[in-house]
Amino acid sequence: MTFLTQAKMVEDSRLVMRVAACAASRGIADPHTWAVQNMWALGARPGWGDAYTEALAKEAPGDPAAYVATAGADPDVITDQMITEGVAAVLEHTSTATLSGVAEIEAVKVAAVEEITTLKSEVIALTRPPDPSQVETN
Questions:
Q1: Is there a contact between 15 and 74 (Cβ–Cβ < 8 Å)?
Q2: Which residues contact 47 (CB under 8 A, 6 or more apart)?
Q3: Is the pTM of this model over 0.85?
Q4: Is residue 53 a contact partner of residue 1, using CB atoms and an 8 Å limit?
Q5: What pLDDT, in 10s, does the model give residues 36-74?
């Protein structure tokens, strides 16, 4: 698949609408926006590019200026199962990345609290008046 073909696929409004319909069935808020934002990840999934390329090759436009590809609307090209599996994979990846990001944030917070505690102890030690029994006199 060429980059141009992949670009056509991810911009295919009919395919985007099918992905949005799947996203809506999964309870995703604003499914159209979600679909548009995730089309590149979906379009890079195994099998999508080959299926779309093959479908475009079968469409023979009579007038290239008036050509409108219908591959994205054809459930035999990118199947509903491919879309469902793709959406699930993107959601799983996003969820895993979010959890990983939360864990990283928590680790940074713990390290920051430890550093603040250490600095606070050092400041207290530096600002505490000396113990008279520990002061050397000459």
A1: no
A2: 82
A3: no
A4: yes
A5: 999 999 999 999 999 998 888 887 666 554 455 688 999
